[in-house]
Amino acid sequence: MAEHLKLDNSERLYKEAQELIPGGMMGIRRPYNFVPGEYPIFFDSAKGGKVTDADGNEYLDMLCAYGPIIIGHREREIDAAVIKQIKEKGFCMSIVQEIQNTLAKKVTALVPSAEKVVFCKTGSDATTLAGRIARSFTGKAKIIRCGYHGWHDWCVEQKGGVLPKLYEDTLEFHYNDLQGLEDLLKAHAGDVALIIMTPIGHPNAHEVEMPRPGFLEGAKKLAEQHGAVLCFDEIRTGFRVSLGGAQKFFGVTPHMSVFGKAMANGYEISMVAGRRDIMDVLVSKAFVSSTYFNNTLAMVGSLATINMLERDGILDVISKRGHAFCKKVRKYVKASGLPVTFTGEPWMPYITFDKEDTGRYKKLRTAFYTQLIRRRVFLQPYHHGYVCYRHSSKDLGHAADMIAESLEEIRKGT
Predict the structure, then answer these.
(1) Distance CA 184, CA 172 (A)
(2) pLDDT tens-digit map of 340-369
(3) What's the pTM value of the predicted model, to 2 decimals?
């Protein structure tokens, strides 16, 4: 059995943080989202595909900062471009710099739905702006959603502090449920501005789902029949599934889409991309502005990231290695005989335990992820993982073997 990790410094820092910051850190990164007492709470450094915690324990990082790390931590070429911008040009000015146009040309050439774009900072910025654009363009009120779209009032799942009137026009359907979407559109006929959905289903703590045949195409057809804007939330899939996003991979072009995470390998940027006439409501009909949206370090980082992805065929390498890793894991999962489901191949691998009424799956989940973190593989019990470029075939083979060992350990205990 793998030994419990030394986490004294992490625990000390957490205790200190709770006196300074509500909960010690923002919600998704709090210990209860992992296995309390088993997972580190503070990291110290990262390089390539690995991360080191505050106690010196090194892990294979398969959470990748919840998705932004598409190539690897501390990528020299990307960081050098950002440092050059700092030293030679600066990055926070009263009006824009040329890099805005350069990056916009690059992404509009790659992303099918991108005739015009707006750069923001976070995924929540982008999804919320998409709603404003769609409402302004259509003159309608309702938003129909499917997926996680951030922490803003219109879509946040925890409703504490949010006025009901701020989300009462937001409706929800389930991924791959085309009939459910159609029923909502009919029930609110003539009043739906936006359908926003993830092109791959990845609800938190649930299996990753691929689109059934005709699902994405059907959603677009329904949107057009009902005069709504269809937006793909590609915050997780963009610049990961393909350079043009999942929309390019699946061959379905929405009217608008939002991107973030992998588009800058960790630098803070997101974007709304869409059809020219839809996006142009921001010329004078609707408003968006921010002191920091025009800061250019993340734009430089994004351009350098996308150039590397394109030049080196990185996404093909990730896909190939991801498929090989997932093939091994699926074999180990099947051999274990445990009630385990493995999804997300090849980009967003996720190991979940099949739910049943007794709650046994919760104990199995905790036991499995306890064994896995002790073997220095950093994955999350309630969120899918990621494969990045600096995860070598050897790294991923080792991760698969550690998954096998962890499954065997809990099988022996059942």
Answers:
(1) 8
(2) 999 999 999 999 999 998 999 999 999 999
(3) 0.96
